[in-house]
Amino acid sequence: MDGDRRHLLLWFFAAATAVKLLLIPSYRSTDFEVHRNWLAITHSLPLSEWYFDETSQWTLDYPPFFAYFERFLSFFARLLDPKIVDLHKGLDYSADSVVYFQRITVIFSDLCLLLGVYRLTRKVETLRRNLICVLVVWSPGLLMVDHVHFQYNGFLLGWLLLSVSFLQDGRDLIGGFLFAVVLCFKHLFAVAAPVYFVYLLRHYCWAGLATGLRRLVALGSVVVAVFAAAFGPFIYNGQIQQVISRMFPFGRGLCHAYWAPNFWVFYIMLDKGLAFTLRKLGFDVQVPSASFTGGLVGDSSPFAVLPQITPLTTFVMVLLAITPCLIKAWKKPQPGLVGRWIAYAYTCGFLFGWHVHEKASLHFTIPLAVVAVQSLEDAKHYFLVSIVSCYSLFPLLYEPQEYPIKVLLLLLHSVVMWLGFTALYSDEKALKKEGGEIKSKFEMGCIEKGYLIGLVLVEIVSQFLHPYFLGDRYAFMPLMLISTYCAVGIMYSWIWQLLKILT
Amino acid sequence: MPKKNLSGDGTAAPIDTWWWLSHKGTTTSFLCISLFALLIRSAVSMFPYSGAGTPPKFGDFEAQRHWMEITTNLPAIDWYRNGTHNDLTYWGLDYPPLTAYQSYIHGLLLRFFNPDSVSLFSSRGHESYIGKLLMRWTVLSSDALIFFPAALFFVLVYHRNRAKSQVAWHIAIILLNPCLILIDHGHFQYNCISLGLTLGAIAAVLCGSEVLTCVFFTLALSHKQMSAYFAPAFFSHLLGKCLRRKNPILSLLKLGIAVIVTFVIVWWPYLHSVDDFLMVLSRLAPFERGIYEDYVANFWCTTSILIKWKKLFTTPSLKSISLAATVLASLPSMVHQIFSPSDEGFLYGLLNSSMAFYLFSFQVHEKSILMPFLAATLLALKIPDHFNHLTYYALFSMFPLLCRDNLLLPYLTLHLLFTLIYHSQLPKTKASSFSFTNFPGYVFLLRTHFVISLVLHVVYLTIQPPQKYPFLFDALIMILCFSYFVMFAIYTNYTQWNFSSHFRSVDKEKKQI
């Protein structure tokens, strides 16, 4: 029945494609111009100038494989409309040709995601497989970020899922190879590198002295080969310093302009709260000159009371957070649990990382979708976290035209999830009766229900009540409210995942 | 776990892949599918509307905006009257009063958020981001508030005694009606209101509450006079049912009173004098525009290639000829329903009468295919193959219109979406004794139609028509669609007639047992 299951996967993909095609004329963020500029850079300039060019403010800041990918796409772009790849004339080009071209490349690149899902779910039974497919291919977060805001996350996450699928099959060498490839596409995925390192070392290379050493050498050489293929030309040209500085721009601040719902939101709120109380109590607390979103201004800290946070601090915190998972992976490396560990690693990276975008929540919600169908608790957890992370992406699409679309995407996703999970975990005995209500074991707890209803209230306040009563004043408040509220949900998810891994 | 149907002959029927969607009942799956349908509508709304950026006349969007401007600024009696503030030559109101009231309510909404778009005179040709958005949201809300509940009502009534496995598919077919989405949310119109009211009337018939039927249908007629396409079916079915009652005159009287009361309430501002009433009526039936306009796939327009109707006859005589032809075409289905009314036959009657009107009526537009198409979506479970082809040709008949509106991408996408939904769960049909597919050459004819249509799609988009015949390709498309519609109409009329004899033979069998 393999043909049948392939048909169904293609059906899901085609239905999603129909929606994506209709989203072509929607709002595009500056990321659209960023990628168009990269098409122009990689097409019009020789390799030695790719990471040096500054014709446009949107300089190349992804690793070389992504640049090669853009080079490949630029070939077709030039066939369609040469102005797209023109370095100077194509600046802020927004004609139909470039919009359709770029949007369609994202749709095509989603085939990678489909391949990843297909491979991951080959051995899973029908209902679970369909549900995973629905959760990943029809993910509202992915639709909003990739096909409206504009990015290539589907493509990259496809590679990641492929890598996980090979690890789950026990074919560690290919899994490691694919992860190295992903790293060379987007270095942000490196957060899960410790997990991979520990798992592969323990599972693949810990097999007696001779075999182990041989495997270690094989793995090492594969990874080195991938990095060589990516960075080789630039090392040869002596440009590796420039490439690294472009990839890791630490001139940016702790938080992105829209605060991602992570741990630092609480830290900042705490700092502000303490500063306020201390001032009221009469202490002399200086107003900080630096801001959170701007860069590090010399030695001055944007924090009034609490200690300053540096990139190194965040790095250490992320590593500390991942450590329990690494210990578990070391003690008992099970292929079936790899997906969980990687999702956990990305959650930690999201919560404690430096200059995190809320788009990064896709990195853990997509792998978690695959895990969600494994047990009732996983399903309940996923229901909550996917709704919260999707809602946290709402501020990305701030124009009124997209409002019904994002709300409907989230509502549809929630209803489909609810229907799917209740069907998956329905009471066996009740099924024997035809007709009548089928009871399900899938029931959210009171706190979770309350939290989700609170989400609706937050939306009403930030979208309707705030503009009505306060107009343009305190414009940062709705965003702060959304970030803080979602951060609670994501912290809960982190703690839940941690407990699940430890037990 | 998904249920497996194990039939006695040993072959396992396909596992119901959509079990998880409909296991919580019809209403929940309706909610799920309607969210998706609203999403598709919101997405199509982002595309251009009719007459976007084309002064001085623009298109249907400007017409609707103008009606909002007129109704919010002038008293009701002046809405249909030519006056200093109301220039009827610039998109004068040509739908009945309920459209005017709806324009008034929407106009109030627009005035609250964006007064510039409905201010008298100065808002002519007003085009802005927020104006477009508000107008699109009025259509979306009308759809959600009128068409969707009516569809739910229909589905609940129609499927109450049937197996639940096909409900979700049917809901998707009704709600994801590609023609309706493209016209209402793309081109820009409010067909969802009149079609929703008609759908409510149809559901009320299936429910047995005839007074409600009359109320809903009168409201539908008062919103768009094109709802009269369905009038013969309603009339003949209700008449047939009343004649079977103990006291036919009393039943008819009840229904008549319901119609008259609803009518009076809606048309109240225009019933104070005969002149007012006639003034409105003259706007509803613009006979001076001729028997056909543009290239629509109906009888008069298609045959005008060979027989120049407009040159041979005067407009009044063409009026009578088309009336006669329409009545003749819908007569078989009407007679059938009067003598043997049944729910199933009624649905076929709707399809047949609306198709007859589409093919033979006066001043038909391409958009009027929505009426027979709605009836076909209701019958989709019974005639799946024919419905599939009808959708294809109905969309194709609107293709030139959609191309002019720059709605090519939504057109192609909705084709794709419809195909996906249609094939997601193919309904099982009983092989009937008379099957069109048995008719020699039918399959070949259908295949050649399809190939020609594909060629025409490409030709229309890429090649420039010759100077002498600038509308050559439009005409070819029209001929192709017309020939399919005729085949379709013959099939459905025949099925309706067959239906009664089958029905009667089943009755006889029951009596014998």
From TrEMBL, chain A:
The keyword Cell wall biogenesis/degradation does not apply. InterPro entries: Glyco_trans_ALG6/ALG8 (IPR004856). Its EC number is 2.4.1.-. The keyword Signal does not apply. Coiled coil: none annotated. Keywords: Endoplasmic reticulum, Glycosyltransferase, Membrane, Transferase, Transmembrane, Transmembrane helix. It is an enzyme of class 2 (transferase). It is found in: Endoplasmic reticulum membrane. Pfam families: Alg6_Alg8 (PF03155). Its main location: endoplasmic reticulum. Pathway: Protein modification; protein glycosylation. Belongs to the ALG6/ALG8 glucosyltransferase family. This is Alpha-1,3-glucosyltransferase. It comes from Brassica rapa subsp. trilocularis.
UniProtKB/TrEMBL annotation, chain B:
Keywords: Endoplasmic reticulum, Glycosyltransferase, Membrane, Transferase, Transmembrane, Transmembrane helix. It is a multi-pass membrane protein. It is found in: Endoplasmic reticulum membrane. Pfam families: Alg6_Alg8 (PF03155). The keyword Transmembrane applies. Its main location: endoplasmic reticulum. The chain crosses the membrane at residues 133-155, 167-183, 195-220, 250-270, 345-362, 369-387, 407-423, 444-463, 475-494. Pathway: Protein modification; protein glycosylation. Its EC number is 2.4.1.-. PANTHER family: DOLICHYL GLYCOSYLTRANSFERASE, DOLICHYL PYROPHOSPHATE MAN9GLCNAC2 ALPHA-1,3-GLUCOSYLTRANSFERASE. Belongs to the ALG6/ALG8 glucosyltransferase family. This is Alpha-1,3-glucosyltransferase.
